[in-house]
Design a protein that fits this description.
The protein is an alpha/beta fold. It has helices at about 10-20, 50-55, 105-120, 145-155, 190-195, 215-225, 255-260, 270-275, 280-290, 315-330, and strands spanning about 1-5, 25-30, 35-40, 60-65, 85, 90, 95-100, 125, 160-165, 180, 205, 230-235, 265, 295, 335. The chain is elongated and about 70 Å long. The mean pLDDT is about 95.
């Protein structure tokens, strides 16, 4: 349920009204925009009388909503949310590019790539320390050592770091990570999502390989219900019947998400197609569709990468793509961080 207040409503009236609702065991999600002040009620609202609530002279409108996700719902929060990661803003008119290798392999590799992507305009460094792989015989990442190397690259460049977590047991290792990524395979790892909901740290939530948009938003709701509202959604392609690409990038999800949620949406064109030459056109299309950022894989030697070399751009190619990203983002009114 959503309750919209009149512009003439006083802070005292709203506070008294809100406290009364809290005393009935309801959770309150407050949203204050330029022209709107509303609260969303989370919990069992079936016993509330809509007419009685609307009878208050400071209440503009009362709405029941049917969607199961509440905190992530745009109806609860009409204005776009902007999530800040160590000074880098994502959402609204702010556009950010996260770039780096699929896997952290060595100190020279990660620092070299970090310096290259920063010089080309990337605002965050992505890199995998813990790698979920389809085959148990594939490279699984450097784990704790990989996190230390990412921190070394941050010290060398100043770029905030983004990396994937696999389970709750590793949470203590991620205290120095600036934004924690939840991969597609863990999108519905509900115990992990609940644990991340207790943190005061941005979470990048990737879409599951076969997840519907509602399932994806419900996963975001798990994190937000725990108190952490710093969630960024990442479209990374879904599994379809088409065999010519690794996945099918669902760009229609971007405007649909923009209609349903206030959360920022970024696109990962590298994992979507799994083909390096497709990263550029998919990036341009993602910006045109309304994305708030991109996540692009960059490796200094893709042919010898320990994972996902086929979809990784060289630093030189990434630089060329970034020139077009900057121009396209500016054309659509986005400010590149």
């Amino acid at each position: 349920m959503i309750i919209i207040f009149k512009k003439s409503a006083s802070e005292e009236q709203i506070a008294t009204f809100t406290e009364d609702l809290k005393s009935q065991g309801l959770g309150i999600h407050e949203s204050v925009g330029e022209n709107t002040h509303l609260i969303g009620l989370v919990g069992d609202v079936s016993k509330l009388d809509v007419d009685q609530l609307a009878a208050n002279d400071f209440v503009e409108e009362v709405k029941r909503i049917s969607e199961p996700y509440k905190a992530a719902n745009r109806k609860f929060h009409p204005d776009d949310s902007t999530i800040e990661v160590k000074g880098v803003k994502i959402g609204g008119c702010n556009f950010a590019v996260m770039a780096g290798p699929c896997s952290v392999e060595s100190e020279p590799q990660i620092i070299g790539v970090a310096e290259a992507v920063k010089s080309s305009g990337a605002s965050l460094l992505r890199g995998g320390a813990f790698k979920p792989r389809t085959s148990p015989y594939s490279f699984q990442g450097l784990r704790g050592e990989g996190l230390e190397l990412l921190c070394a690259a941050r010290r060398a460049t100043g770029l905030p770091i983004v990396t994937e977590i696999m389970n709750t047991e590793d949470l203590p290792l991620f205290e120095d990570v600036d934004m924690i990524q939840v991969g597609a395979r863990n999108m519905q790892n509900f115990e992990l999502l609940k644990a991340l909901g207790t943190l005061d740290k941005p979470i990048l939530l990737k879409r599951g390989l076969s997840a519907t948009i509602e399932e994806w938003l419900m996963s975001a709701e798990y994190i937000m219900a725990g108190g952490n509202e710093k969630v960024i959604l990442c479209e990374r392609g879904i599994r379809t019947f088409e065999p010519s690409m690794r996945n099918t990038l669902d760009l229609s999800a971007v405007p649909m998400l923009k209609a349903k949620t206030h959360l920022p949406v970024v696109v990962d064109p590298s994992h979507a197609a799994g083909i390096a030459w497709m990263v550029e056109p998919l990036s341009m299309a993602a910006i045109a569709a309304g994305a708030d950022g991109l996540m692009i894989e960059v490796h200094n030697d893709p042919k010898h990468a320990l994972s996902d070399g086929a979809q990784s751009l060289t630093p030189a190619k990434f630089d060329a793509v970034m020139q077009k990203v900057k121009a396209t983002a500016a054309f659509f009114g986005k400010t590149l961080n």
